[in-house]
Amino acid sequence: MTLLSTIDQTFMREALALAEHARDTHDEIPVGALVVDASGEVIGQGWNRNIGDNDPSAHAEIVAMREAGRALGNHRLVGATLYVTLEPCAMCAMAMIHARLARVVFGAFDPKTGAAGSVFDLLADPRHNHRVDVTGGVLADEAGSMLTNYFRAKRGKPATS
User: pTM of this prediction?
Assistant: First the structure.
């Protein structure tokens, strides 16, 4: 295991804890995200808040990037990495490009709306003036199980292992 993957797993575990908080405290879809600056400091964190805030844009990634922007006093998050438990959607991917993130690391792939390679590949599209490096599948099983079991519970079905 490389040092980079160890760091990625450490930060992904923090994002998973934020996803658990979303699920357990707010009954939101369990997605958590955090933004880490180039020196390794967490400068923003968030979880899905779109249901509770009645805000369709309050995905975990957007919430974390907003907090990071406030922490830096800048709308550009140059050199930063965003960790998120689910592959970003198109809205979040485009926000990442506009924020000039250096990198995104995600957990579970999203075969329905993923915009970091599953359905769309917005972050690497050469037509943009900025591209974001992507690492997907970090602790994917844990992230995917949390999402699957959340929706199974909503439908009155037993959890999977």
Answer: 0.95
